[in-house]
Design goal:
By secondary structure, this protein is α+β, with helices and mostly antiparallel strands. Helices cover about 20% and strands about 20% of the residues. Bound molecules: zinc ion.
């Protein structure tokens, strides 16, 4: 989404902003339209799951898609109306950017850039594992004493910011680690295997513009292309692509986890990771 926004909206100047008035995860400030008017987009950054749309005058529009949020871009001056659009930015050249969010867990907040990293949403986040991939040794130390499962450890945005539910299952499968194991019980070699897979899985998914199950769409309202590459996620009962054992689904922290009981069993061999 960051890459798509960067190529589509960078350099454009906001002419007007319309709000639905509905409350998202938190209330959108009613002053947002007047503060955004005439601002120009200078770049788009990301940390974890947060998008940072930089504007001139040292402002940054901070946003999170939540459960079902989408940024949708259109060059058409009068795009087809859509339900659940809570923010519409109209650019001076006639193009527009809309934030659509049926379940309303998303967030949008305009922040002064010098206060950005003190914003309560960003201040609590761990490092971004795609921008700066962690070493196995670092993860091993971070997990020391952690009693939480390794699956939920990877999802904890305060430790690492950016791994979501789909990719946590994929990373652990490719690293051949049982998702039910306590994070603090994994050895250095196991963390090395997990560390190697984190940037690979995230990188491949980003290249294919993400994974669509229900709500996620690209900036052009199309599904992402990574779904067909998934090895375990949403494949319960189907044969493991590596060993043929049926993939198992369990629930951890109210979220589905998928894994191969054979490849990711305690006695699974630690063969070198496939390239
Ligand atoms: Zn298997």
């Amino acid at each position: 989404m960051r890459r798509m926004l960067e190529v589509s909206v960078r350099g454009r100047t906001i002419a007007s902003v319309r709000l639905s008035g509905a409350k998202l995860r938190s209330r959108i400030a009613p002053s947002l339209p007047s503060r955004l008017r005439r601002r120009r987009v200078t770049g788009v950054r990301r940390h974890g799951k947060y998008l940072l749309i930089d504007l001139d005058e040292d402002l940054t529009l901070l946003s999170h898609l939540g459960m079902s949020g989408r940024w949708l871009f259109s060059t058409d001056g009068r795009p087809a109306p859509l339900p659940h659009v809570h923010v519409r930015l109209a650019f001076a050249d006639g193009s527009s950017l809309r934030f659509q969010d049926p379940r309303r867990f998303g967030m949008l907040r305009l922040v002064r850039r010098d206060r950005l990293w003190r914003d309560p949403s960003l201040a609590v986040l761990g490092p971004d594992p795609f921008a700066s991939p962690p070493a196995g040794e670092w993860l091993h130390r971070l997990a020391r004493g952690a009693r939480v499962s390794v699956k939920n450890f990877l999802l904890d945005q305060r430790r690492l910011a950016g791994i979501g539910n789909i990719y946590a299952s994929e990373i652990l499968h490719r690293g051949r680690v049982d998702p039910r194991r306590r994070a603090g019980a994994l050895g250095r070699e196991e963390w090395n295997a997990v560390a190697a897979e984190i940037p690979r899985v995230l990188g491949e998914a980003i290249e294919r513009m993400g994974t669509t199950f229900r709500s996620y769409r690209t900036l052009w309202n199309e599904p992402g292309g990574y779904g067909e590459k998934l090895l375990v996620y949403d494949r319960a009962g189907e044969p493991c692509r590596r060993c043929g054992t049926p993939i198992k689904r369990i629930v951890q922290g109210q979220r589905s986890t998928y894994f191969c009981p054979r490849c990711q069993g305690r006695k699974a061999s630690r063969a070198p990771a496939r390239s």
